[in-house]
Amino acid sequence: MVTDASPKPPEPETPTAYFGYRRVAASEKGRLVHRHFDTVAGKYDLMNTLLSFGMHHLWKWTAVRMLKLKPGDRVIDVCGGTADLAIRAAQAVGETGRVTVYDINWAMMAAGWPKVVNSSLAPRIDYIQGDAEHLSCPDASFDAAMVGFGIRNLTRPEAGFREIFRVLKPGGAMMCLEFSKPKTAWFRRLYDFYSFYVMPAVGKIMVGSWDAYTYLPESIRMFSQPEELSASLETIGFTRVRYRRLTNGIAVIYLGVKP
After folding, report:
1. What one-character-per-residue DSSP string does the chain give?
2. Residue 197, domain member (yes or no)
3. Is residue 2 part of a domain?
4. 5 inside domain
5. pTM of the model
6. Domain enclosing residue 92, as ranges
7. How many other CB atoms sit within 10 Å of the CB of residue 138?
């Protein structure tokens, strides 16, 4: 009897990603994120207002203003969800401009649809359902791109940023509005208590899910900090990268330009 004693090649590792604090198969994260937004979509806007004490409206207004959109601009709102950013951008680009809401989750887009159709801005706003890591848009087709509170939910955020870079015209601007950690220690302790105890409790009462609003603070803690994300944007190719912290660093606006 002959036994093959030669070492077997190691089996390839399964790519993984973080869903909150949980390490899951990369192929599984998309399904989990999709289920999360299916759960929260119906009350997403209301919960944002309750949990941020209305501050998210100011953050979004500031972020779009810093993008410095011009009449006639074509803008893509990646992970655009309920179209809060898109509506603000549509006001800025005027009647000759267009804004495309791009999101993979139909429930989120449907939740925001009444806000669009019941406004005079509806003719300026288009919708595409698709994966932000593989944008179904031609190269260099937009004057500006924005993503609000969505990039950290991607399985590969850097792939999403590379796609944004690809679809921007030379000279086009990118804006990312994303959550982060407070700067000062005392505020961070207060924010941690609020995030991990109050927010899930409100989520349980309002949405019927404690877990949905546990994922939110966990995903924030696992996401890159401003210095790290800025360096990543520069590696991708963005120039004039800068960021601005809001409300002690709870939210951060990132800006960059495609040369």
Report:
1. -----SPPPPPPPPPEEEETTEEEEHHHHHHHHHHHHHHHGGGHHHHHHHHTTTHHHHHHHHHHHHHT--TT-EEEEET-TT-HHHHHHHHHH-TT-EEEEEES-HHHHHHHHHHHHTSTTGGGEEEEE--TTS--S-TT-EEEEEEES-GGGSSSHHHHHHHHHHHEEEEEEEEEEEE---SSHHHHHHHHHIIIIIHHHHHHHHTS-TTHHHHHHHHHHHSPPHHHHHHHHHHHT-EEEEEEEEGGGTEEEEEEE--
2. no
3. no
4. no
5. 0.92
6. 17-183+209-257
7. 9
Residue with the two structure tokens 């949990």: 51
Q: What is the pLDDT along the chain (259 residues), one digit of tens a residue?
A: 444 545 555 555 678 999 999 999 998 999 999 999 999 999 999 999 999 999 999 999 999 999 999 999 999 999 999 999 999 999 999 999 999 999 999 999 999 999 999 999 999 999 999 999 999 999 999 999 999 999 999 999 999 999 999 999 999 999 999 999 999 999 999 999 999 999 999 999 999 999 999 999 999 999 999 999 999 999 999 999 999 999 999 999 999 999 9
Q: Which residues pair with 168 in a beta bridge?
A: 142
- In total, the chain counts a number of residues equal to 259
Please answer whether residues 210 and 198 qualify as being in contact, where contact means their C-beta atoms are separated by less than 8 angstroms: no
CATH number of the structural domain spanning residue 35: 3.40.50.150
Domain count, the chain: 1
* Structure token pair of residue 219: 């995903």
